[in-house]
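Re: the pair you flagged

First of the two:
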Amino acid sequence: MPKPQKNLYGFSACKNRVNTNMSKDIIEPEYYKDFRCIGGDCSFTCCKEWKIAVDPDTKKKWKSIKTPEGMKEQGRLPESVSESDMLDAFIVKADDSEVIGLLPNMKCPFLEEDRLCILVKNHGEEVLSKTCHTFPRESHVYSDRVERALVSCCPEVVDRWKDIDSLSFTGFDYKDVSVIKNQKNVYRQVRDLMMYYLADDRVSNRINLLKAFFVLLDIYSKNGIRDPEEYFSESTLVELEETIETLFEEPEESVKERNELFLDITENYVKEGRYAEFLGPMIDEAERLKDCPDYAVFREKNKEYEKLMRNYLISETFSSLLFPEADIPDLVMQFEWIMMEYALMEHAIYLKWRSCPDKTVPYETVRDMMVLISRLTGYGMDDIEEYLVNSFEDAIWDFGYAVFLLG
């Protein structure tokens, strides 16, 4: 089947927009301002494997900056570039974008052995493209507010989630029922309602995802929220949770479905030789997977990361479910994509666990798989819809498929 080629994080890294109206409310995670790139200490550099976009302003600036000395001797000068060229010679076309041409080893040519950027060393951060300068920050600008987030493609962000019991935001309390009920913008109301459900630590993340998706499909069928009260009834929600729990009937078949999805979503990356260090052994393990009687053991061990994954789901829903010009079908497709990402993360961790002789799930493995899957699935809305239509015939899933995927 055709696959979407344009990866959002691969080409533009973040959907950043500049806030020119300082009177707008700012909503952001409480840890947002404290975030700092750890540079050479990063366990999963963003200067490798990705197609890094170069914006027009940066390209213009690079036309007057010379190639750093010593790159040829260090084996980091692309064949198409000479030592006398300006920096804009490093820019290549990729689909409809202009990006930094990567070396055969998939590294950015400006990445030095100490895993620091030679451009920053020589010229400061001002010389970087907007993608490099802002990642992993993401912003959405609305008429009344600016929403800022830090995305899961960065291991340092995942480390923050690991150390937080429950995510909180400045200027926004997603656990305040009265605020959600009285929200006038229906699209934000839907997004905030999904966050409210996903934050429920009484039940598992799987139950919360399916509970939220069931409600989202109901909202989709009605084209809006007619009575907010019905979505907060404790007895109704508990009954829904109990019903969902009875629907998980074939966990091994669900594992096989996730395995097929993993092989499908990674196919193009394997062909391009990207993320080979991670994907090679995992693809081998996925292709060997015929049955999985050990899955119940894995899932029990993986429960220790339930809080971490809950924080991921809340953050991902905040940052990606809603965007300017989104409508309710967009919200449904984005939520399906979040469920896919969650399922793929769990499956990637399972594949790593299966290949581990002592059958352990170290935190570092969990973090790397979360970052990897986030980078592999960072599509824009048009490409998400294309993938869903091509893979599932209809971009809007039946509830039964979501149960099967997460079972």
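Second of the two:
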Amino acid sequence: MIKIGISACFMYPNLERDYFGPKTLSYIENEMMNYLTRKGILPVLIPDVKEEYLKDILDEMDGFVFQGGADLAPITYGEESIGKWKGDAYRDQYELKILDYAIKNSKPVLGICRGLQLMNVYFGGTLYQDTQTQNTAANNHRSAALYDTIKHKIIFTKGKLLAELYREENDPHVNTVHHQAVKQLGKNLEVYATSPDGLIEAFGYCKEPEGKVMGVQWHPEFSSTLKGELIDADKLYDKFLSHIN
């Protein structure tokens, strides 16, 4: 059984909740679980535990997926918050420990939305805290009301992995559910795709085979919402799985 470790999203204590009000919850969004689960493949939530236990858990994983969710905290990439975008510094540190393990142990990694942003920061890059505020050339890439029902065209970098993977796509589109984006690209990352307004939509770590350590800004797990209108999400996951020994 192949085990895919998934970093957790967190819900922090909130006494207005009817259940577990004073407690912190760790969770995985359900469409993500369905996207990653296949015969012989078990997605596993990586618990937020003491470091003395964490390595033994990570040693059991064959690959790692970093899911979307809360913003990264600006302090994590050396900036002060410009407004309401405070982010989740606690989750940042939890995930960076996992990502550091994955990179140093040459494990396959797929970062999705926030996961791509986390990878960029890990490799020394920075983010737009809010693209509409800090990059006037950028289109609006997120609508809370429309959520995963909006899309945009994607431009694949010629000669790179995604251009080959989706070579039969005549009019490739992806969904868009983010308001933060890569600003300065991290070290040893190469761009696989951009949006029409120039934002980085996918990249890979150039010190590993193409696709072994990769981030995408869209949500492949949400592709069924716009079925038939977006690039094939399974091809992306297939490529990730191909790097698992």
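Residues 89-104 form the longest helix (16 residues).

-B.
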